[in-house]
Amino acid sequence: MTRAILLACAMMISATATQAIHREDDRYVRKQVKAGELISRTLGCREGELTGGGYLITGQPENKAIFNVTASFPLADGRWRVDLRNVSGEDQPLTLQIYALCTDD
């Protein structure tokens, strides 16, 4: 059974309590990520301004580190960036969901 592991949750950066927020998301799937390979993904807002972001890696076995997230942060151009590396020593499949939280204008 595939167990979803939430590695990071959304982090609010600049939204005020009066602003409505919506979520953009992008699913990234690779059949094989080589051992030691670094993956970088970014996602921005189609409408509104970026207020936060995060990611979810699914399909990983319990109690085994396969991917190490080395960064999850906002970029100056209004996109959210996630970097991760395959630290398992073997080629591995990857399913990554990246999220951007955006203001409603």
Quick description:
The chain is mainly beta and 105 residues long.
Explain the overall architecture:
The protein is mostly beta strands. The chain has one domain: Sandwich (Immunoglobulin-like). The chain has no helices and six strands. The strands form two sheets. A three-stranded antiparallel beta sheet has the order 1-6-3, with no helix packed on it. Strands 2-5-4 form a three-stranded antiparallel beta sheet, with no helix packed on it. A hairpin with a 4-residue loop joins strand 4 (67-74) and strand 5. It is elongated, with a radius of gyration of 15 Å.
Could you outline the blueprint of secondary structure elements for this entry?
Layout: E1 21-33, E2 38-44, E3 50-58, E4 67-74, E5 79-86, E6 92-103
Antiparallel strand pairs: 1-6, 2-5, 3-6, 4-5
N→C terminal distance = 41 Å
Helix/strand-derived class? Answer: mainly beta
Question: Which strand order spans the largest sheet, edge to edge or round the barrel?
Answer: 1-6-3
* CATH structural architecture: Sandwich
In the CATH scheme, the class would be: Mainly Beta
What is the chains' assembly state? single chain
Q: Biggest sheet, open or closed, and with what strands and sense?
A: 3 strands, antiparallel
Mean pLDDT: 83
